[in-house]
UniProtKB/TrEMBL annotation:
Molecular function via GO: acyltransferase activity
SUPFAM superfamilies given in the database record: Trimeric LpxA-like enzymes
Secretion signal span: none
Highest taxon in the source lineage: Bacteria
Keywords from the named record: Acyltransferase, Repeat, Transferase
The protein's name in its UniProt record: Acyltransferase
Length: 164
Protein backbone atom coordinates (compact mmCIF):
# COMPACT_ATOMS: atom_id res chain seq x y z
CA UNK A 1 0.00 0.00 0.00
CA UNK A 2 1.63 3.24 -1.17
CA UNK A 3 1.38 6.66 0.40
CA UNK A 4 -0.76 9.36 -1.19
CA UNK A 5 1.98 11.61 -2.63
CA UNK A 6 2.46 13.63 -5.79
CA UNK A 7 5.74 12.88 -7.57
CA UNK A 8 7.72 15.47 -9.52
CA UNK A 9 10.69 14.39 -11.66
CA UNK A 10 13.81 16.58 -11.63
CA UNK A 11 16.72 16.79 -14.06
CA UNK A 12 20.24 17.73 -12.99
CA UNK A 13 21.57 17.65 -9.43
CA UNK A 14 19.55 15.99 -6.66
CA UNK A 15 16.16 17.51 -5.92
CA UNK A 16 17.16 18.97 -2.55
CA UNK A 17 19.94 20.93 -4.25
CA UNK A 18 17.16 22.49 -6.36
CA UNK A 19 14.75 23.16 -3.47
CA UNK A 20 14.30 26.86 -4.24
CA UNK A 21 12.80 25.98 -7.61
CA UNK A 22 9.90 24.45 -5.66
CA UNK A 23 9.66 26.73 -2.60
CA UNK A 24 10.40 30.44 -2.30
CA UNK A 25 13.32 31.44 -0.08
CA UNK A 26 11.06 33.91 1.75
CA UNK A 27 8.55 31.17 2.61
CA UNK A 28 11.30 28.82 3.78
CA UNK A 29 12.89 31.45 6.05
CA UNK A 30 9.55 32.71 7.43
CA UNK A 31 8.41 29.15 8.16
CA UNK A 32 11.73 28.19 9.73
CA UNK A 33 11.62 31.13 12.15
CA UNK A 34 7.95 30.50 13.06
CA UNK A 35 8.58 26.77 13.59
CA UNK A 36 11.58 27.41 15.84
CA UNK A 37 9.52 29.82 17.99
CA UNK A 38 6.68 27.28 18.21
CA UNK A 39 9.03 24.38 19.04
CA UNK A 40 10.14 26.11 22.26
CA UNK A 41 6.91 27.94 23.12
CA UNK A 42 5.51 26.78 26.49
CA UNK A 43 1.97 28.04 25.75
CA UNK A 44 -0.13 25.56 23.77
CA UNK A 45 -2.67 28.21 22.59
CA UNK A 46 0.14 30.48 21.33
CA UNK A 47 1.89 27.54 19.66
CA UNK A 48 -1.35 26.50 17.90
CA UNK A 49 -1.97 30.10 16.81
CA UNK A 50 1.46 30.15 15.13
CA UNK A 51 0.70 26.88 13.36
CA UNK A 52 -2.71 28.12 12.19
CA UNK A 53 -2.08 31.77 11.34
CA UNK A 54 1.54 31.86 10.24
CA UNK A 55 2.01 28.38 8.77
CA UNK A 56 -1.52 27.69 7.49
CA UNK A 57 -1.90 24.35 9.25
CA UNK A 58 -5.33 23.03 10.26
CA UNK A 59 -5.13 22.37 13.99
CA UNK A 60 -8.13 21.22 16.01
CA UNK A 61 -9.33 22.31 19.43
CA UNK A 62 -7.35 21.20 22.50
CA UNK A 63 -4.62 19.67 20.36
CA UNK A 64 -1.21 19.68 22.03
CA UNK A 65 2.14 19.78 20.26
CA UNK A 66 4.83 18.87 22.78
CA UNK A 67 8.18 20.60 23.10
CA UNK A 68 10.51 20.28 20.09
CA UNK A 69 7.94 18.97 17.56
CA UNK A 70 9.26 19.70 14.06
CA UNK A 71 6.63 20.35 11.41
CA UNK A 72 7.49 20.49 7.72
CA UNK A 73 9.33 23.72 6.93
CA UNK A 74 8.48 23.85 3.21
CA UNK A 75 4.81 22.74 3.11
CA UNK A 76 3.32 22.97 6.64
CA UNK A 77 -0.05 23.97 5.14
CA UNK A 78 -0.42 20.33 4.07
CA UNK A 79 -0.73 19.21 7.73
CA UNK A 80 -4.19 18.67 9.24
CA UNK A 81 -4.57 17.64 12.88
CA UNK A 82 -7.96 16.98 14.48
CA UNK A 83 -9.30 17.84 17.93
CA UNK A 84 -7.86 16.60 21.23
CA UNK A 85 -4.61 15.15 19.80
CA UNK A 86 -1.16 14.90 21.33
CA UNK A 87 1.91 15.07 19.13
CA UNK A 88 4.79 13.80 21.30
CA UNK A 89 8.12 15.37 22.17
CA UNK A 90 10.61 15.75 19.32
CA UNK A 91 8.33 14.20 16.71
CA UNK A 92 8.62 15.18 13.04
CA UNK A 93 5.77 15.70 10.57
CA UNK A 94 7.11 15.70 6.98
CA UNK A 95 4.98 16.59 3.96
CA UNK A 96 7.89 16.52 1.51
CA UNK A 97 10.69 14.18 0.43
CA UNK A 98 13.53 15.42 -1.77
CA UNK A 99 15.28 12.50 -3.47
CA UNK A 100 17.98 12.17 -6.14
CA UNK A 101 15.78 12.36 -9.26
CA UNK A 102 12.45 13.54 -7.87
CA UNK A 103 10.64 15.15 -5.01
CA UNK A 104 7.34 14.08 -3.43
CA UNK A 105 4.69 16.07 -1.63
CA UNK A 106 1.75 14.67 0.32
CA UNK A 107 -0.71 15.72 3.00
CA UNK A 108 -0.57 14.42 6.55
CA UNK A 109 -4.06 13.99 7.97
CA UNK A 110 -4.36 13.15 11.67
CA UNK A 111 -7.84 12.41 13.00
CA UNK A 112 -9.40 13.31 16.35
CA UNK A 113 -8.09 12.02 19.71
CA UNK A 114 -4.87 10.64 18.22
CA UNK A 115 -1.81 10.07 20.41
CA UNK A 116 1.59 10.16 18.70
CA UNK A 117 4.45 9.15 20.98
CA UNK A 118 7.76 10.96 21.37
CA UNK A 119 10.43 10.82 18.66
CA UNK A 120 8.03 9.62 15.97
CA UNK A 121 8.42 10.52 12.29
CA UNK A 122 5.31 10.80 10.12
CA UNK A 123 6.08 10.68 6.39
CA UNK A 124 4.19 12.49 3.59
CA UNK A 125 0.89 11.17 2.29
CA UNK A 126 -0.17 9.43 5.51
CA UNK A 127 -3.58 9.46 7.22
CA UNK A 128 -3.88 8.48 10.88
CA UNK A 129 -7.45 7.60 11.85
CA UNK A 130 -9.47 8.81 14.86
CA UNK A 131 -8.44 7.39 18.21
CA UNK A 132 -5.25 5.78 16.92
CA UNK A 133 -2.14 5.49 19.08
CA UNK A 134 1.36 5.54 17.61
CA UNK A 135 4.09 4.25 19.93
CA UNK A 136 7.16 6.36 20.66
CA UNK A 137 10.05 6.11 18.22
CA UNK A 138 7.94 4.93 15.29
CA UNK A 139 8.21 5.74 11.59
CA UNK A 140 4.70 6.15 10.15
CA UNK A 141 5.17 5.22 6.48
CA UNK A 142 1.60 4.07 5.76
CA UNK A 143 -1.96 4.87 6.79
CA UNK A 144 -3.05 3.95 10.31
CA UNK A 145 -6.68 2.82 10.78
CA UNK A 146 -8.97 4.44 13.36
CA UNK A 147 -8.52 2.97 16.83
CA UNK A 148 -5.33 1.08 15.97
CA UNK A 149 -2.30 0.86 18.23
CA UNK A 150 0.82 0.79 16.04
CA UNK A 151 4.54 1.18 16.49
CA UNK A 152 8.03 0.45 15.33
CA UNK A 153 10.12 0.69 12.21
CA UNK A 154 8.82 -0.84 10.09
CA UNK A 155 5.41 0.13 11.44
CA UNK A 156 3.30 -2.77 12.65
CA UNK A 157 0.01 -3.17 14.45
CA UNK A 158 0.57 -3.82 18.14
CA UNK A 159 -3.11 -4.18 18.96
CA UNK A 160 -6.09 -4.30 16.61
CA UNK A 161 -8.49 -1.47 15.92
CA UNK A 162 -12.00 -1.41 17.27
CA UNK A 163 -13.62 -0.96 20.70
CA UNK A 164 -11.32 -1.18 23.69
Amino acid sequence: MGRNVERFKMEGPNALWQVYRTVSRFKAVRNFVAIQIARYCPSLPVKNAIYRRVLGMKVGRETAFALMVMVDVFFPEKIEVGDNCIIGYNSTLLTHEYLIGEYRIGKIIIGNSVMIGANTTVLPGVTIGDGAVVAAGSVVHRDVPAGAFVGGNPLQELRGSGPK
